[in-house]
C-alpha cells in the first residue's frame, strides 16, 4: 500500500511546491566555502545542473549539534534534508520496540532524504555522537529541485538498471528506489576510482567505458617497488567496490578508468538498505575472488578475514 502512495507522491509534474518563493539563507564567503566542500560528493546533488545546484546552496542553512542530540526522530514528519560537514552520527532503527544502531555516518555523507522523497515518516533516528555541524535544506526546496530531478533520472536509467545482472532479483519498485538515490560520476582515462587500502563508503556499477582492477602484488620483489598487477576488468553493467562494504574491510584492490568512464555510485547506507537481497550473489562472487587469488599469487589469503 505504501509503495502505491509513494509512486503517487513522486509525480513531479504536479508538484504543488513549484510556485513557492526561492529560499535564500545569506552566507559569508567562509561559510559558502565550507558548504561547497561538504556538498562536493553528495550523490543526490550530482544530477543537478549548475543553476539548480547553486539554488540548493543558497537555500542551505548551518545547523550546529551537540552530543546525544537527535537530529531526526523515527516516525516524525520530514522537515529538512541534511548534509554532514563534520561529526559522527548513529543511525538507530526501532526493532520490536528496541532501538538498534544499524550504521553510522563518520564526518561525511547526508541523510533525511527518504521522508522528503516519498512523503513517509522518518525511517530512522539520527543521533549526534559529538559536537557536529550540518547543513540543512528545507523540504520544499529539496522537493522542487532534487525530487523533481529524480523523475528524469528514472527515465534515463530505467532501461540500463533493468539490464544489470546483479539487480535482476529485485522488484521494479526496488530498482527505482536505487535510481532515486544514486549519483553518476565521470572519470577520465587513467583516473583512480578506488585506492587499495582506503576505507570504503560507496559501491559502483559501470555505466559506460571500462574499469581496470589492480592489486598490489604479493610477490616479494614486486612488493618492494609497490608494483600493481591487473586482476580483472569491469564493463557496462558490471559492479565493483562491493567487497569492502560486505566485509567491512579496507578496499582490497584499486580501480582505474580506461578511457572515459561513467559509473553509477551508491553510498553504503543505501547499499545496506536496498541491496540486501543481492548480497548472496555478491558473496558467491567473492568466493570466486578467493579462488583466483590463490591461482594468481599462490597464497591462501581469505578476503573475508
Ligand atoms: P529519513 O527521511 O527517513 C531518517 O530520515 C534517515 O536515516 C533516512 O531518511 C535516511 O537518510 C537515513 N534505513 C532507513 N533510513 C536510513 C538508513 C536505513 N540508514 C540511513 N538512513 N537503514 C540502515 C542502512 C545502514 C536500513 C535499516 C533497516
Ligand atoms: P573493494 O571494495 O575491495 C576493490 O574495492 C574492488 O575490486 C573490490 O571491492 C571488488 O569489487 C573488485 N579480489 C579483490 N577484489 C576484486 C577482485 C579480486 N576482482 C575484482 N575486485 N579478485 C581476486 C584477486 C586476485 C578477482 C580476480 C578476478
From TrEMBL:
3',5'-cyclic AMP 2 binds at residues 242, 251. Keywords: cAMP, cAMP-binding, Cell membrane, Cytoplasm, Membrane, Nucleotide-binding, Phosphoprotein, Repeat. One of its GO terms (molecular function) is protein kinase A catalytic subunit binding. GO terms for cellular component: cAMP-dependent protein kinase complex; cytosol; plasma membrane. InterPro entries: cAMP-dep_PK_reg_su-like, cAMP_dep_PK_reg_su, cNMP-bd_CS, cNMP-bd_dom, cNMP-bd_dom_sf, RmlC-like_jellyroll. Residues 44-163, 166-292 form the Cyclic nucleotide-binding domain. Belongs to the cAMP-dependent kinase regulatory chain family. This is cAMP-dependent protein kinase type II-alpha regulatory subunit. It comes from Cyprinus carpio carpio.
